[in-house]
Amino acid sequence: MTYSRIAGTGRYLPEKILTNADLEKIVDTTAEWIKTRTGVERRHCCAPDQTTSDMCVEAAKIAIDDAGINLSDIDMVVIGTTTPDLIFPNIATLVQHRLGIPACIAFSLEAACTGFIYALTTADKFIKADEAKCVLVIGAECLTKLVDWNDRNTCVLFGDGAGAVILKPSEKPGIISCHLGADGQYKDLLYYPVGPSKDLHKAGTDEVAIIMAGKEVFKVAVNMLGKVATQALESSGISKDELDWLIPHQANIRIIQATAKRLKIPMEKVVLTVQDHGNTSAASVPMALDVAVRDGRVKRDQLVLMEAFGGGFTWGSVLMRF
Ligand code: UT7
């Protein structure tokens, strides 16, 4: 049986940092409200001319270097994002070309904040099926370009960034289990109102921007993140006490704390980046993984559970030995 395993990680955060104090000057809020209600203290924002593929390229270079592979080793690129540069060509082809990776399988997928978990799961299947031998998997997002900077309910939450991993075959796990889910009955609770074939934006109302029913999203998120983590552990016969690290989607410190409490996992085992990154959607889990690998917390062979939840709703988990 071939498993897949992460051989290298990388992340990129845009230079510009927007603090809660900066936001106080833009919108009717306080730094204290943002910190206590969300856990976010600062977030990075793309420059106006900076794109998601720019961030992907930088994160990928670090992951490729970390894995010690050549560009020609890579035979697949998969990117989870809701904010690609263009509708087409797909962003993975742009990144493949810009990095100088020879022609290969390259596609992006959209699962909102669960995009990286969906992309990693897909890469794992390609490796297990012997259809790919070295996959560049990225979660990347520039949601700060989609928010209404007059809407204090949403503009204080999001940040930009990209997280990348290199996934390769391995004799031993590696990835132990992946679980994905989605339910479109929740489509009206979190969405962007304009797409290439539909326009739900009411002319003359607000700016076209992310629409979110925060409280409702919060409740379903805690419930689903708890469920998907339990499913990952139970299906693998692994107890929560064996887990070394939980790396959850970084949407809100209170969602993370409530999920950890529900799972009875101590917060010391939870990787937190929400204070520094804000909610970076598909980039949040791979960036948090990279942070914890590089600061020495996540070590080789440790048991790590990554999980995410986002618009759709979508949700998913990957349980792995790093
Ligand atoms: O990535 C996955 C998708 N997104 C999420 O997971 C987000 C999930 N939801 C949340 O994180 C939280 O619901 C929010 C952070 C969005 C909001 O926190 P909350 O504790 O649920 O606040 P709320 O919406 O119930 O609002 C409480 C009060 C309201 O005032 P009133 O009606 O009580 O007078 C809001 O108008 O806080 C007010 N408020 C603010 N005040 C200062 C809302 N946003 C702000 C703000 N600054 N930025």
Strand and helix map with partners:
Blueprint: E1 3-12, E2 16-19, H1 20-26, H2 31-38, E3 42-45, H3 52-67, E4 76-80, H4 91-99, E5 105-109, H5 115-128, E6 135-142, H6 152-155, E7 160-170, E8 175-182, E9 190-191, E10 211-212, H7 214-236, E11 245-248, H8 253-263, H9 274-277, H10 284-294, E12 303-310, E13 314-321
Parallel strand pairs: 4-5, 4-6, 11-12
Antiparallel strand pairs: 1-7, 2-3, 6-7, 8-13, 9-10, 12-13
Helix pairs in contact: 1-2, 3-4, 7-8
Low-confidence stretches: none
Helix proportion range: 25-40%
Which small-molecule species are bound to the chains here? oxa(dethia)-CoA
Order of helices and strands: EEHHEHEHEHEHEEEEHEHHHEE
Radius of gyration from the alpha-carbon trace, in angstroms: 18 Å
Strand order of the largest sheet: 1-7-6-4-5
- Mean pLDDT, to the nearest integer, reads 97
Percent of sequence in beta strands: 15-25%
Q: In one word, what is the shape?
A: globular
Question: What's the end-to-end separation, in Å?
Answer: 18 Å
Largest sheet report: 5 strands, mixed
According to DSSP, the number of beta strands is: 13
| Assembly level | single chain
Our count of helices gives 10
